Amino acid sequence: MKFLYDDESFSFEALRAAGYAPYGGAELGEVLVTCRAIPEGDEVAWSTRWAATAARVERIGRDALAAGHRVSAREALLRASNYYRTADFYRREDPARDQESVRLQTASRRTFADAAALLDTPARALEIPYEGTTLPAYLFTVDGSGVPRPTVIYHGGYDSTLEEDYFALAAGALRRGYNVLAFDGPGQGATVRAGLHFRPDWEAVVTPVVDVAVTLPEVDTGKIALVGTSLGGYLAARAAAFEHRLAACVLHDGVWDMYETVAGVAAAAADAGGIEALVATSTSARWLVDNGRWTYGVATFDDLLEATRAYTLDGVADRITCPTLVLEAENDQFFRGQPQRVHDALTCPKDLVVFPEDEGGGEHCHEGATLRFHQVAFDWLDGVLAD
Hints:
The chain is an alpha/beta fold and 387 residues long. The protein has 2 domains: 1-118, acylaminoacyl peptidase (de novo design (two linked rop proteins)); 121-257 and 311-387, Alpha/Beta hydrolase fold, catalytic domain (Rossmann fold, 3-Layer(aba) Sandwich), CATH 3.40.50. It has helices at residues 8-18, 28-35, 43-66, 70-88, 99-116, 162-175, 203-213, 232-242, 258-272, 275-281, 283-296, 301-307, 338-345, 370-384; strands at residues 124-130, 133-140, 149-155, 179-183, 219-229, 248-252, 324-329, 350-355. An 8-stranded mixed sheet has the order 1-2-4-3-5-6-7-8, sandwiched between helices. Helix 13 (338-345) links the parallel strand 7 (324-329) and strand 8. Helix 9 (258-272) packs antiparallel against helix 12. The relative contact order is 0.10.
């Protein structure tokens, strides 16, 4: 699906930013005027223009808050958080030493935290104990009653952030009576700057989150579902294979083997005359390589390729016992065909739903069709978790 740009990556990321509008993460007019000032493939302009829009919208929120307009402040700060995240997206050449990347990430986290405190039921920031440190999390609740409710544990994937999780899933869950415990695992969001990187044995990450969830009075411990987005489709499946306190799992979307995706980049690099030649001309390949080196904690593309070998559901999928929903995007540019392989390998109760391109849900993780994704996922969960 082409959206504003011919460049596949710019088109997708613009659609991603705009697609959170139903839950207050964007205003279409703001997206359009920002993108029209960004030339095709110009990553410097992308960061500069999105940062400027984010700062302008944040000022609206700060002024509204100072004047006592709680709803207006919340709305603007939520949009600013998403725009700051978008501004930082392509700054992956050397993020450890990129002070502008640090500033943008910090601003995205700060504006979201301030907005989360203004929700009708304020979100609660938590720290999940994890191997001598902690993982950042938010508990989003339907109301302040403390009544136990079905609860979704949610994490993103290769480039998601905890703050984005609200738009991507939590807001839709709250409307339907689900509480949400969202978190950044190692390799995600702010954890990378703390020295944590992706690991294939994701059950070592999810089990500590479940340990916390079962202690919370707001959580119905018999109705805990796990949802993972993008690469999180592999991560959640891997966790569900070993963590059996889960009542259901949703793979958004199904990922069978991360190595196959990165090996596809290696094949394209061979045709282009080497990885340096490929990343010099392809926005998508450049970002995938740079973000992978950052989040996996490796130095080179060859290191990244080798690191992803362990990220496969081969020999793992049949260990999942809880009912599992596998989602698939018809036009997925990263994992095309893999959800079907995941579904075929599952031996638990299972369903597969394909989102067609001609209905607007065919992009990776159904960006631009968030409401439809939520309708499918939560209607399925309603049935699986029914008493």
